[in-house]
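Protein fold
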Amino acid sequence: MVANVNAASERLVLTGSSTVAPLMGEIARRFEAINAGVRIDVQTGGSARGIQDTRNGIADIGMVSRALKPDEHDLRAFTIALDGVSIILHANNQVIALSKQQIADIYTGKIINWKAVGGADARIIVINKAEGRSTLELFLHYFQLKNSEIKPHIIIGDNAQGIKAVTGNPHAIGYVSIGAAEYEAQRGAPIGLLALDGVEASVANVRNGTFPLSRPLNLVMSREPQGLIQRFIEFARSPQAHDLVEAQYLVPFRD
């Protein structure tokens, strides 16, 4: 158990990934409950914000839903969970599978009607992620696309916006965190997760390493963690937080 902290002034600011933020909010509440006087402020804005704020000293910890890049070697990263990225459709969409090429063609405007891929005679509404979102970077890398090639009808920020856009439009296609999608689907959201390369998009397949579009969820900082930052990171990666990770439909990180 983490020792109680009595200094009322102890505060941490976390900014960044909207995929990581809901989990960190839950972990922060538990950490605060057993550490009197500690306040943890969790803010979203995308992985790029987490990197920038950490480098600029605005945030103590950045939340980044991808591995660090070679030009980010000045930062320290600590993985707290694993997640995947899933293509999602409305639950009423007749299409149950799309090839990698078909998805790329839909996003680049080569396929514009669901009828071309076995669905209804309806225009495809393409939902893309905004710049600075690591989910966008992973999507582009996996499908070997440039963002300038994408022909979106709707541009969204966080996972909740993406899920809301698809649930509100039976002809939409989007991509979000598998954890976020499964979490909302279990609560009745009318969305379906598409397989990739024949592998079902599920937390189980992220856990066993078979889902092809997976990623680490990281906490990053500009220096070696010490004091309150170190205690919080150790807590977030410990078995004391694993139930919170699993409740968000993510895979706990284990050394």
